[in-house]
Amino acid sequence: METRQDWSILLGMSDVNFDQKPETPKRGGPPILSCYDDLAASCAYGWSMLERGVKDRKSPFHTPSVATITANRGPTIRTIVLRGCDTEARNLRFHTDTRSGKIAELQANPQGAMHFYDAATKVQLRLGVRLEMLSGAEYDAAWQATQPMSRECYQVTQAPGSPLASPQDVGFDAQATRDGEDHFVPVRAQVETMEWLYLAARGHRRAHFDFTQDTMEWLVP
Ligand SMILES: Cc1cc2nc3c(=O)[nH]c(=O)nc-3n(C[C@H](O)[C@H](O)[C@H](O)COP(=O)(O)O)c2cc1C
Known about the structure:
By secondary structure, the chain is α+β, with helices and mostly antiparallel strands.
């Protein structure tokens, strides 16, 4: 049965307050992150959230958005599953189909963006990334680690996004696609910049990290 509370969710009412003026912290509110006023610690916290996003399927960082630039329709964006995070090397990994639109887009323009938001901690990360298809040993390791269920996605005989007369017309062929390997590709997102935004009642915190220049600074939220 619907209650008034259900409607408040449907109507988009939220406990997120983006007003710039700090509030008096409410008793019983979420504890402030220990990295609150520490630039380097905020960066490290962001990377720890990304690492957790790979391992924890329930983490909102498990399914970020990746944006690319199309040839003639401006930017486009989609959800992917975060498969890898190498904090030291500053890169992330996701898997896709070689025939998908995002592959043609990243081949024409490797600059992309990724977006993450964790409503529990109220942390948003906006990443500037350089996208690259992996090959050789990195490709093999990623393919070997895929589950049979994931492999099925790549056994589709028609290219993803192809028009269909009927939704039942999708074909799968494990043999003809070498179990799906013919169409599988891991993509590395080399993180060039990270923008940290932390919404906190006592005052928001926003920071920019440039891993190509090795610089970091606070920004007006
Ligand atoms: C929760 C969720 C997870 C997804 N994970 C992936 C993924 O890991 N890789 C992928 O190629 N598409 C994934 N998709 C589908 C993409 O969002 C997108 O629809 C598809 O890849 C086609 O995108 P493109 O035509 O822009 O390349 C996922 C969608 C959802 C809703």
